[in-house]
Amino acid sequence: MRFAFIHAMIAEKAPFTITAMCSVLAVTRQGYHAYKRSLASPRLAKDVELQQRIARIHAESRGAYGSPRILEQLRREGFDASKRRVERTMRAAGIIGTPRARHKTTTRANAAHLAAPNVLERDFTASRPDERWVTDITYIWTDEGWCYLAAILDLFSRAVVGWQLSSSLSTALPLDALEKALMRRRPTVGGLLHHSDRGCQYTSADYRRALAERSITVSMSRRGNCWDNAVAESFFATLKTELVYRRRWTTRLELRNALFDYIETFYNRRRLHSSLDYRTPAEVESEYRAAG
Q1: Cα dihedral value 177, 245, 233, 279, nearest 10
Q2: 176, 197, 201, 281: which could form a disulfide with 157 (CB 3.0–4.6 Å)?
Q3: Burial bucket for residue 148 (CB in 10 Å: 0-12, 13-18, 19+)
Q4: pLDDT one-digit tens code per residue, 247-287
């Protein structure tokens, strides 16, 4: 990578000598000239191109992609490379994806509230958009205090269809996320299933009333069973790994802006999802509309 950088600087007529750049980057002039000669080899030239492509894809993913998604993106671009070759190139360049973190439970049950049965039964598939939604709440620390994020995902495309950030863990938080999702998607009356855990926000009279008014079928996880809401749990783990844990958040506004950019620009429209055969949520929904 250092030799490639020097070569690029020379090609762009940068005002630095080869000796100076080699000294700053702690490489030898002989090594650079050997690298330059190697570019004449088609195989080595393709290795250099692969490394440059991998570095670009990794940067465009905000440092999130590991070898599986980088390999899929390379294939999308028409670049032929094996899984082992991509992994080997990434190791040599010191490029790694962000490791996953586990999501911790935020919501708490209220014994006075009645829970709904688990209608979803861990069937995280859907035949069309807005057939099945899952939702959950997580927490994020800022220098101004805790923030709570409620998010709703469509199981057909894995798109985040509604979300809200608040400094309060009241029922108003998921209600706001629900209202945003309903306004954005306008699901068929009586044709939507809504699945959550048994947190007091979701079992509250206000939230249940909002669902009933729209004839939405209610489904809830069994007591203490996080796997019943695995898709929502997985989204929060991904969000925290790829965004939240990678920096310090000074203000709630700063966090809100970053969440908007991550969810609306990257996650819904550009991020390749392994559960979608390495397509984006936007692509899945576009293909569905085109087929209809």
Answers
A1: 90
A2: 281
A3: buried
A4: 999 999 999 999 999 999 999 999 999 999 999 999 999 99
Q: How many other CB atoms are found less than 10 A from the CB of residue 216?
A: 20
Q: Which residues pair with 148 in a beta bridge?
A: 139, 166
CA dihedral 220, 221, 224, 225 (to 10 degrees): -170
Q: What confidence category does residue 142 fall into, taking pLDDT thresholds of 50, 70 and 90?
A: very high
CA distance 89 to 151: 37
Give the containing element (helix H, strand E) for 17.
Answer: none
Q: Is 92 exposed, middle or buried (0-12, 13-18, 19+ CB in 10 A)?
A: exposed
Share of the chain above pLDDT 70, in %: 91
Pairing of strands 193-196, 160-166: unpaired
217: part of which helix (H) or strand (E)?
A: strand 217-220
Distance CA 19, CA 22 (A): 5
The answer to whether the CB of 217 falls within 8 A of the CB of 131 is: no
Q: Which SS3 state, helix, strand or coil, does residue 215 take?
A: coil
pLDDT (average), residues 159-170: 96
- C-alpha span between 83 and 67 (Å, rounded): 7
3-state SS assignment for residue 196: strand
Residue 11, burial from CB neighbour count under 10 angstroms (0-12, 13-18, 19+)? exposed
Q: Is 273 helix (H, G, I), strand (E, B) or coil?
A: strand
Torsion-angle region of 150 (φ positive above 0: left; ψ -120 to 50: alpha; else: beta): beta
